[in-house]
Amino acid sequence: VIRADAVAGEPGLPHLLADARRRGSEMTDELVARHAAEKRWPLDLARRYFTEYLRYKVTDRDRQGLALFFETAAKMNLLLPRRPLRYLEVSQ
């Protein structure tokens, strides 16, 4: 997830980030081994962390949750000004 204004001056940035996400998701075994040892986690916990707890794509349900979060925060006067959420779709 990235702010739209951060992409304005860097037209190649969305594709660069999408590629980094893809490459990172292909490194699960390496990341599990490295971070399990580093954090002294059991391997099964590290694997669950990288495959279940971390998510690498924003789904429609995630977008609905973000919209609800921002709507609720705006009603509580925690976020001003309220702007509509915009998503940039990047083809792989």
Summary keywords:
mainly alpha, 92 residues, extended
Radius of gyration: 17 Å
Into which percentage range does the β-strand content fall?
Answer: under 5%
What's the total number of strands? 0
Order of helices and strands: HHHHH
Helix coverage percent: 55-70%
Reported for the largest beta sheet, the result is: none
Distance between the termini: 15 Å
Structural class: mainly alpha
- What would you call the shape? extended
**What would the average pLDDT be, to the nearest integer?**
85
Poorly predicted tracts of residues: none
Number of helices: 5
What would a concise description of this structure say?
The protein is built from five helices and no strands. 61% of the residues lie in helices and 0% in strands.
Question: How would you characterize this protein structure?
Answer:
By secondary structure, this protein is mainly α. Helix content is 61%, strand content 0%. It is built from five helices and no strands. The chain has helices at residues 4-7, 13-25, 28-39, 43-53, 60-75. Helix 3 (28-39) crosses helix 4 (43-53).
Topology diagram in text:
Elements: H1 4-7, H2 13-25, H3 28-39, H4 43-53, H5 60-75
Helix pairs in contact: 3-4
